[in-house]
Design goal:
Structural class of chain B: alpha/beta
Order of helices and strands of chain A: HHHHHHHHH
Strand order of the largest sheet of chain B: 5-6-7-3-8-9
Shape of chain B: globular
Number of helices of chain B: 8
Number of strands of chain A: 0
Mean pLDDT of chain B: 90
Shape of chain A: globular
Structural class of chain A: mainly alpha
CATH topology of chain B: Rossmann fold
Helix content of chain B: 25-40%
Largest sheet of chain B: 6 strands, mixed
Oligomer: heterodimer
Radius of gyration of chain B: 17 Å
Number of helices of chain A: 9
Number of domains of chain A: 2
CATH superfamily of chain B: P-loop containing nucleotide triphosphate hydrolases
Largest interface: A-B, 25 and 29 residues
Number of domains of chain B: 1
Largest sheet of chain A: none
CATH architecture of chain B: 3-Layer(aba) Sandwich
């Protein structure tokens, strides 16, 4: 009897997760359009603020949605998920991919609507600004990557904190909250130290002694994104291992 | 074959299973009987691989329960499907995970149980939800079927319908079905082997026919006797 492949299982889980996130994605797109259109027509000086707000919302929402993992226990759908022949990596991976999809769609909607509103409000100034900044598009892409890995980092910590919380029957929510804060502080300190070492490395690489704090912003952002991505993967693996080996109903 | 060897499980101060030794042969319908809190659901959950034994080992067809998930169809007592799913969406989801999904059987049962694929699982009656759960569990040709209280909260007519469905689609010698319930009357005629469980321990176990002859009672009568003795211990 042929068994379904991992790819098909992942795709099925991903579709389910995305379907659950669809209302939020629709609200995000609608808010981005409405807020930026309103700012353009009624409060042109606030187009920058509306762009910031909607991009911020697009980044914040996947992080909030990541806490829906606990809802599987509350709704008892965890019985279905845990009885499936699917590993924790597959189940959590599908959830994380759906959250990242939400971030990308929301970010694109907010960025496009906000960007158009600003460009329409201040066409001359924006053109002048863009000509002054070198490699504007690659820098924007780099910033988007930086945002993506950082949201992924927060989502992975949220997963780990929630599975840690589910190891106990009483005060599960409290343990999740405390774990989230503790892991976030611990990892942020670690990343800060690695980044500081990186700044020194980049500065010394440029032959500067003492090194400048930001010798090459784009290299630094790329370096920092890679570090955050590696730490996120490690946190994700820890969450998946606990899900597989320690969690039970 | 399903084997429990010295299996114990505790939840806080409650000893859910207490040194269980048990062998269930292939191809049988087994009734797991006992009052509320006897440990029936815990045994089911351990076999389904969603709970772990604290001590002892459980083997399902020579594999650990976690490895055997692909061959086990588990029907928990609670509603475990997403309420926003339609019956078709739930079936499509399960089909992606199990190579033993039988679409023909699914179509036949859908008709037999008078269910519609566009029914939203969160918006139908409890009886219909129970039928949907049964449909989704038995539409697979799984080696092991674990049914935890399939009649819970269901009216008598629907219970009979569900029991008929279970018997009709049970593949003799190819499947092993374990039904946990305290509604013994509904499945008395179905079961080959019975296990009476109380306070996490097996009080009585054996072939249904042999026990009926030995005790000269129906299963319901035997259960009453067994638990009367267990309570007076």
């Amino acid at each position: 009897m042929p068994t379904a492949g991992k790819g098909r299982r992942f795709w099925t889980l991903y579709k389910k997760e995305l379907r659950e996130l669809t209302p939020e994605i629709v609200i995000l797109i609608a808010t981005s359009i409405l807020l930026n259109v309103y700012a353009y027509f009624k409060a042109a000086p606030l187009t920058g603020l509306s762009l910031t707000l909607t991009v911020g919302l697009a980044a914040f929402l996947p992080f909030i949605s990541s806490f829906k993992l606990s809802r599987e226990w509350k709704n008892q759908t965890v019985y279905l998920m845990m009885s499936l022949p699917a590993s924790g990596a597959l189940i959590l991976g599908a959830k994380l991919t759906a959250l990242m999809t939400e971030l990308v769609i929301g970010g694109l909607a907010a960025g496009t609507a906000g960007g158009l509103a600003i460009m329409a409000s201040y066409p001359g100034e924006i053109k002048q600004l863009m000509s002054m900044v070198p490699n504007v598009y690659s820098n924007l892409a780099l910033m988007a990557l930086f945002g993506l890995v950082n949201v992924m980092f927060f989502c992975c910590i949220s997963f780990l904190a929630q599975v840690l919380g589910k190891l106990v029957r009483k005060y599960s929510g409290l343990l999740s909250f405390v774990s989230f804060i503790a892991i976030l502080i611990l990892l942020s300190k670690g990343i800060e130290m690695i980044n500081a070492a990186g700044i020194t490395h980049f500065g010394l690489g440029m032959g500067l002694n003492p090194p400048l704090p930001f010798p090459d912003p784009s290299s630094y952002i790329l370096y920092s994104s890679i570090i955050v991505a590696i730490v996120s993967v490690l946190v994700f693996i820890a969450a998946a291992l606990i899900y597989d080996r320690r969690l039970e109903l | 074959m399903i084997e429990f060897q010295n299996v114990s499980k505790r939840f806080g101060t409650v000893q859910a299973l207490d040194h269980i030794d048990l062998t269930i042969d292939e191809g049988k319908i087994v009734g797991l009987f006992g009052p509320n809190g006897a440990g029936k659901s815990t045994m089911m959950k351990i076999m389904a691989g969603v709970n772990r034994a604290d001590t002892g080992t459980v083997s399902i067809g020579g594999q650990t329960p976690r490895q055997a998930k692909e061959f086990v169809s588990y029907l928990p007592e609670i509603d475990h499907f997403y309420p926003w799913w339609t019956l078709k969406e739930a079936a499509d989801f399960l089909r992606a995970f199990y190579g033993d999904w039988d679409q023909e059987k699914y179509g036949h049962l859908l008709e037999f149980l008078k269910l519609q694929e566009d029914m939203k699982l969160g918006k139908i009656s409890k009886g219909q939800r129970a039928k949907c759960k049964i449909l989704l569990a038995v539409s697979r040709n799984a080696h092991y079927l674990l049914m935890d209280e399939p009649f819970s909260g269901i009216d008598i007519l629907t219970r009979e319908e569900i029991a008929r469905t279970l018997i009709q689609d049970f593949a003799d010698h190819q499947q092993t079905m374990i039904i946990s319930t305290h509604e013994i009357g509904e499945i008395e005629a179905m079961v080959d082997q019975v296990i009476f469980l109380d306070q996490g321990q097996i009080c009585l176990e054996g072939e249904a026919e042999e026990l009926r002859n030995e005790w000269g009672l129906s299963m319901v009568g035997i259960m009453k006797e067994v638990f009367r003795h267990a309570n007076s211990r």
